[in-house]
Amino acid sequence: MNRTIIPIRKMHCRSCELLIEKTLAKIPGIKRVKVSLPKAEAEILSNGTLDLELVRESIEKAGYEVGKSERRLFFTRDTNEYGYLAMSALVVLFLYFIVSQTGLLDFSIAISSGAGTIAAIFIGLTAGVSTCMALVGGLVLGMSVKHAEKHPEATAMEKFRPHLFFQLGRIIAFFVLGGLLGELGGFFAPSAVTLGVIMLIIAGVMLLLGLQLIDIFPALSAYKITLPSGISRMLGLSTHHEKEYSNRGAMTLGALTFFLPCGFTQLMQMNAIATGGFLQGGILMAAFALGTAPGLLGVGGLTSIVRGVAAKIFFKTAGILVIAFALFNFSSGYNLTGWDQFWKNWSMSHDQPVVISAPPTTEDGVQIVRMKETARGYEPNTFEIKKGVPVRWIIDAEEPNSCAASISVPSLSIMKYLDPGENIIEFTPAETGEIRFTCSMGMYSGKFIVVD
Asked: Which of 120, 422, 406 is nearest to 271 (CA)?
């Protein structure tokens, strides 16, 4: 048995491994193929002399190249890319101006359980025209082309049917599996610090994806968050699209994309765990899947419309927006952990004005503190209390479905989801200083100032 190593360029994900392995396995004499994305090579075991020219032709027909990858520069030397980035930044500023002037930013925060769902749809829209299109789009095209080949007499609507059932299966599976992830998070009841760490990880993943989208850091393109190819084989993700079309098969394929190695999908899966509930996690993942639908439904059509300079600006604009979300998540996550005094004073919750309460009343030796929760935060959000005296914190929840309705006090290990109306939290401050509290996403905050 002969062993041959073939260097391969232009691989970008685990799906590339599977495709190349399947292509090379068809060559006579080849007994086993193992393709490695990290090593950028294929290991081939064969009987007799291997036809290297046939191997090269097969790899090129699959859309890849034989040869060692060039060393990637950290910054691109293509000055045009920086020009496109500048134009994309202007597009983002224009979009921000339009959104802020129309009040849509306030609306997205104020609606029922809004910020997470709106963000999930946006992230889905971005993923649906970038990583999800690259990963899932090939499956969609393969499935629909197979259906068209088997049924040449089908009408345009009948040919579009695979896409509809694929998306239906995808959305249903994302809701159910996302709900299970949320239930898992609720079972383990993660602390505020744990949630903060999860958000910091999410921010890091999102930052990497955003930097890759703006495409001025070639060295970063090598870093991918993927599933091992063995798991993909076990799930049958490399073979389902080759089978005869059926509605059930299309829905099953759509459902299986929950496990595909898309960084955006994994990002939202971590978010679903952080919600701590079946319904919340399910809605978050379903919203993400719904957001990906326009891009995936238009997979073919979009790539034929957006080309050249327009495509460059489009993807860079999406990248800038993803980076902005990453910075916001980083600020919110750090705010949740309460690790650093300087950062928490600066963090993005600073846009909520400081409202100092009147001195607390005392009843039967207990300090009574009253606060109102709305979709815009807490009123008041700063209280002065005495050390060693029990505190009864009465919170009137006016918007129990908003982000602010989840109260976290990291230093006291308190995490409470507010019910409509009055909610009571009791504690006794043991030492002077500050006791900070935030919403579960770190967006809104306040503090108790403990004095002697």
From this structure: 120
Q: Output the pLDDT for position 352.
A: 59
b/e per residue 69-78 (b: at least 16 CB within 10 A):
eeeeeeebee
Within 10 angstroms of residue 448's Cβ, the number of other Cβ atoms is 25
Query: What would the pLDDT profile of 145-160 be if each residue is shown by its tens digit?
Result: 445 545 555 566 666 6
Q: CA torsion angle for 138, 318, 78, 70 (degrees, to 10)? A: -40
DSSP 75-143: S---HHHHHHHHHHHHHHHHHHHHHHHHTHHHHHHHSTTHHHHHHHHHHHHHHHTTHHHHHHHHHHHHH
Q: Is the dihedral angle over the CA atoms 205, 18, 128, 174 positive or is it negative?
A: negative
Per DSSP, the three-state class of 366 is: strand
Separation of alpha carbons 405 and 395, rounded Å:
10
The encoded tokens of residue 423 equal 């909610």
DSSP string, 406-442: EEEEGGGTEEEEPPSEEEEEEE---SSEEEEEEETTS
Let me know: does 425 contact 401? Beta carbons within 8 Å: no
CA pair distance 172, 42, nearest whole angstrom = 37
Helical H segments across 151-241, by residue range: 156-188, 192-214, 229-235
pLDDT in tens, 83-104: 888 998 898 888 778 766 765 4
In terms of Cα–Cα distance, which of 130, 119, 92 is closest to 294? Answer: 130
Which is nearest to 393 in space by CA: 424, 359, 350? 424
Distance CA 257, CA 229 (A): 14
Q: Which of 265, 285, 276 lies closest to 440 in space, CA to CA?
A: 276
Which residues have a Cβ under 8 Å from the Cβ of 137 and sit 6 or more positions away? 296, 299, 300
Report the predicted TM-score, pTM, of the whole model to 2 decimal places: 0.53
Tell me: cis bond preceding 380? Omega within 30 of 0 counts: yes
